[in-house]
Design brief:
By secondary structure, this protein is mostly helical. 50% of the residues lie in helices and 6% in strands. The chain has a 5-stranded mixed sheet with strand order 2-1-5-7-6. Strands 3-4 form a two-stranded antiparallel sheet. Strand 6 and strand 7 form a beta hairpin. Helix 4 runs parallel beside helix 9 and helix 13 packs across helix 18. The termini are far apart. The N terminus is likely disordered.
């Protein structure tokens, strides 16, 4: 016996377009069957009166299976069946008895409501057999979603290009500039001795600086990466909540001064943040539709991000907490575990090599409360009004989650915004802070990839509050205006990030001072040896000068600053200088003369030999921020 179709809420009616798209059928058709939609004459009368015109006794909306007994779901077998879905036509609606020896046929008017697909029936015509099953097509992003992604990217791009040329590099950028311009064999050589953690970034910048070796090209990849991160933050807000949340979160990320700082720096941190945002986006998609291809892509992005900076592997811990809070099924855990393990495999050689180069970060101190507070201000905004507002909105998102679910959307994933954003912003900093109590490696720039979780939480909290207002466009505009107000409040900080003084030192003024005073044939000496970075960053300013202490160049020795001669060789070179010869000393004013400098036997010996053979012309000394150029004359 065929089973009738009833409405999910106790009443019959055609399904809407959205429900039909989810069920894979046309509007008004039977669920999941793909059958031809019955014509109005076949569906039945639909009113509450039965075929006899009397009020029906069955108001459940199904097709009665017998007399008017009120049972739902059958085919009407009597004149008073009264089903709202029964065929019209009065007494003639009852099917005539089948002739002897002839198989009984269903009423023609109910043929389209059978649960058996019509294409499989022997009485189906060629038109029904040729009718294809509807195929669910991917929906296009709405205009609001496109704006939520593109507007933050455009704003971040403008802020990144604003004041990009500061007129000077600082010491970390100079390392990128001089290492990335070496040949690939020389680059491979230096990674075996120092800076292996930046090897992939140096290889990428090698291709960039081969096109145009200047400071603008040095920083452009970071600008583009920051714009991509702002777009990904907006996309995550759209997918996990709604377009206006993505718009607010992406804009708030773009106007954060800490983001602008590293968007204009020739180091890998902005690219690491992009990789982390992309990996989080791919995690959300893979958890929703967990194909093996998506999980493989997720693992590849995590691996690439961690190769840019190995501390980015802490993102896996944040994602594990996200999956735990979301209570995903075991199948998702299994596939994520395989992807995470595959992402960690390429890191094993990097970890082994970098452990042997740990001396280059021996200057980092054990973090305490000041470092933790500085990280919070960097993430949420250093200005007090902005800091308080962002933290308050994030607390609202955590303590007052949205009631119920947002309207159904094909983009909705299995993960929630809070479950994604909170571990992203919290877990890696906590783990690195705890590990740094034993091995000091805690720096705020190492954790830039976690910052995106804070704007997402703040935008979600704003949506909880402003969501009470019924006018959607007004609410969206109000949130954008609030982000603009945050930018205006922090505008002095943004302007300061574009100044040369925003970094630890300035190499260009030191090089320019040496170029203005030195003449070809003069000698130069660097105190300490790493101050040779000034000449490596701006080699034109030192053309024609003789380096008294250089034994092997940085490229030939596989080091950042080269190998220097012994003190005995330096004394011999100084002794051979003609009387009256000029020696220019380029020194780091932050270290020369300090306790650390006196503890370096080689550096202290260089000053002793210089003072033995030369006298200082104090009136010729020039001091600039972070450096000095002094003149010594051979006796």
């Amino acid at each position: 016996m065929a089973v009738g179709v009833t409405g999910s809420a106790g009443q019959a009616g055609p399904a809407g377009p959205a429900e039909c798209a989810e069920a894979g059928r046309e509007p008004g058709g039977p669920a999941g069957s793909g059958a031809e939609v019955p014509s109005p004459g076949e569906r039945g009368s639909g009113p509450s009166d039965g075929p006899s015109g009397a009020p029906s006794g069955n108001r459940r909306g199904g097709l009665s299976g017998g007399p008017s007994d009120g049972s739902p779901g059958g085919l009407s077998g009597g004149p008073s069946g009264g089903s709202s879905g029964s065929p019209s036509g009065g007494p003639s609606a009852r099917p005539a008895p089948a002739a002897a020896g002839t198989p009984a046929r269903r009423p023609a008017g109910l043929r389209g409501l059978w649960l058996i697909p019509r294409q499989a029936r022997p009485d189906a015509g060629p038109r029904a057999a040729a009718r294809p099953r509807p195929v669910r097509r991917p929906t296009r992003p709405t205009r609001a979603a496109v704006l939520a992604v593109s507007v933050p990217a455009a704003v971040m791009l403008v802020l990144g290009l604003w004041g990009l040329d500061r007129g000077t590099m600082w010491r970390d950028e100079s390392a990128t500039f001089q290492v990335a311009r070496r040949s690939l064999p020389e680059l491979w050589h230096v990674l075996g001795t120092i800076d292996a953690v930046h090897g992939l970034y140096y290889a990428l910048m090698h291709a960039v600086l081969a096109v145009r070796p200047d400071e603008i090209a040095l920083r452009l990849p970071s600008v583009a990466a920051s714009a991509a991160t702002a777009a990904l933050v907006g996309a995550l807000g759209c997918r996990l909540a709604r377009p206006r949340v993505g718009l607010w979160a992406g804009l708030l990320y773009a106007v954060t001064p800490f983001v602008s700082h590293y968007a204009q720096e020739g180091r890998s941190y902005a690219l690491v943040a992009t990789g982390a945002a992309l990996a989080t986006w791919m995690l959300v998609r893979a958890a929703e539709h967990g194909s093996y291809g998506r999980w493989a892509a997720y693992g590849a992005v995590v691996a690439g991000t961690a190769l840019l900076h190995e501390f980015a592997v802490l993102l896996l811990a944040a994602h594990a907490v996200t999956l735990l809070l979301s209570r995903v099924p075991w199948r998702t855990w299994r596939r994520w575990g395989c992807a995470a393990a595959a992402a960690c495999l390429p890191l094993i050689p990097l970890v082994i090599v970098s452990r042997g180069q740990s001396a280059q970060v021996s200057w980092i101190r054990t973090p305490g409360r000041p470092e933790a507070e500085a990280l919070v201000k960097a993430f949420a905004g250093p200005g007090q009004p902005v800091l308080g507002a962002v933290l308050l909105l994030a607390a609202v998102a955590l303590l007052a989650p949205a009631r119920g679910r947002l309207p159904a959307s094909p983009r909705r994933g299995a993960l929630g915004l809070t479950a994604v954003a909170l571990p992203w912003a919290l877990v890696p900093p906590v783990l690195l802070y705890a590990a740094a109590q034993y091995q000091p490696l805690f720096l705020d720039r190492y954790l830039l990839f976690c910052l995106a979780g804070i704007p997402l939480l703040a935008a979600a909290g704003a949506d909880r509050i402003l969501g009470l207002v019924p006018w959607r466009r007004t609410v969206t505009a109000a949130g954008a205006v609030a982000v603009l107000a945050a930018f205006v409040a922090q505008l002095p900080l943004q302007e300061r990030e574009r100044l040369p003084t925003s970094r630890g030192d300035e190499l260009a003024p030191v090089a320019a001072a040496a170029a203005q005073r030195a003449r070809p044939g003069d000698a130069v000496l660097f105190l300490p040896l790493y101050e040779r970075r000034v000449a490596l960053a701006y080699p034109r300013d030192f053309t024609g000068l003789r380096d008294l202490t250089l034994k092997r160049s940085p490229a030939a020795s596989g080091t950042l600053f080269g190998e220097e001669v012994t003190t005995a060789v330096l004394r011999d070179r100084l002794a051979r200088l003609p009387s009256g010869s000029r020696v220019w000393v380029v020194g780091d004013t932050n270290t020369v003369g300090t306790r650390w400098f006196r503890a370096q036997r080689g550096e202290h010996a260089k000053t002793t030999a210089l003072e033995e053979f030369c006298r200082e012309e104090r009136e010729a000394a020039v001091f600039v921020r972070g450096g000095s150029v002094s003149l010594y004359v051979r006796r």
